[in-house]
């Protein structure tokens, strides 16, 4: 089976006046189908540039990037937009839900921009199924201001799932959540990963990275550590243990 992500000597250089700034230097990386990877590093380490490239939001200035077997380094802008919509599901720290749109309608949005030709009935059915997958079947008609922070993030995850992407990219998905809700969201990601979905996540929190299967650390625009998680955390076990933290976020 072909890797979901294959970076080959990836380079990214920005021009700042007369000065060249190397944002990523010679990064090679392979992520196989079904992996769950956390990317960590301080500001300026290169992780955001690398993730923007993986998300087809930026182009490398050197090397190659293959996404699910497709060399996206050579695609034009329109084809890159199609690839983003078809092969990548995005989850952001700030949820990015439309405030005057119901949960199910928010989930439908990526399918409305897809060229797959799905019927309105099929789009609605797929959106409802995605909400059911993240445990929000009974909140489909609720608006974001009627949902807690954790529920809003679940809607965002459902939205990322709706086009059956090859990869989910999550950027600090627990950054706006309290401890218990963060663990609950990591439980959703673990459940999805157990079903075979490939996930790559940026986080600054080692405790959150411990819920993944593989941790990558960047420093000075290169990868300095890439290892499997030895003592992995499991959300279900942590939430059920005596003294587990209680959620303090009840509304957006």
Descriptive overview:
By secondary structure, this protein is α/β, with parallel strands linked by helices. The chain has one domain: Rossmann fold (3-Layer(aba) Sandwich). The protein has helices at residues 47-54, 77-87, 103-112, 120-133, 149-161, 179-194, 206-209, 235-240, and strands at residues 5-16, 19-31, 36-40, 62-67, 70-71, 88-92, 167-171, 199-202, 214-219, 222-228. The strands form two sheets. The protein has a six-stranded mixed β-sheet. Helix 3 (103-112) crosses helix 4 and helix 5 (149-161) runs parallel beside helix 6. The longest helix is centred in the C-terminal third of the chain and has 16 residues, at 179-194.
Characteristic terms for this protein:
globular, four-stranded antiparallel sheet, single chain, 10 strands, alpha/beta, Rossmann fold, 252 residues
Structure, briefly:
With 252 residues, this protein is α/β, with parallel strands linked by helices. The chain has helices spanning 47-54, 77-87, 103-112, 120-133, 149-161, 179-194, 206-209, 235-240, and strands at residues 5-16, 19-31, 36-40, 62-67, 70-71, 88-92, 167-171, 199-202, 214-219, 222-228. The chain has eight helices and ten strands.
